[in-house]
TrEMBL record:
This is Ice-binding protein C-terminal domain-containing protein. The lineage of its organism: Bacteria, Pseudomonadati, Pseudomonadota, Betaproteobacteria, Burkholderiales. InterPro entries: Ice-binding_C. Coiled coil: none annotated. It comes from the Bacteria. Pfam families: PEP-CTERM (PF07589). Residues 103-127 form the Ice-binding protein C-terminal domain. It comes from Rhodoferax fermentans.
Length: 131
């Protein structure tokens, strides 16, 4: 979420190294997607609310109201021991994070699920024979 402190003054920048990302973009409040361009080895995308009409956004962001900031990127395979990083900078406002990372179950969870289903099936079949 991103919240401007004054009407029509929000400036958001997203930075990521081109060695880490093959593409990077962001979108505010369902508006037009702003794609990053390569500048000196960094992928950089920025949004200036004062100039929003140039980006095709027909709205003004209001002070104190929170808007959804969606950052999308495709990461490259990193060298072992190297961490990828993404920087989000906001002027004339604040940003709060609510990551939307989809968890992937571990193999042990799948094994327990299958064992439980197998046990329930075994019990159901055994009860069916007694009737």
């Amino acid at each position: 979420m991103v919240t401007p402190t004054l009407d029509n003054t929000l400036f958001v920048s997203v930075y990521g190294g081109d060695t880490q990302f093959s593409s990077l973009s962001f979108q505010i409040a369902g508006g037009q997607t702003v794609s990053a361009t390569n500048l000196d080895g960094n992928l950089i995308a920025s949004f200036n609310d004062k100039a929003n009409s140039a980006l095709g956004n027909a709205y003004t962001l209001l002070a104190g109201q929170s808007y959804v900031l969606t950052v999308t990127g495709v990461t490259k395979a990193l060298t072992s021991g190297v961490n990828g990083s993404l920087s989000i900078k906001v002027r004339s406002g604040s940003v709060s994070f609510m990551p939307a990372v989809t968890p992937v179950p571990e193999p042990e969870s799948w094994a327990m699920l299958l064992a439980g289903l197998g046990f329930v099936g075994f019990v159901a079949r055994r009860r069916a024979r007694k009737v």
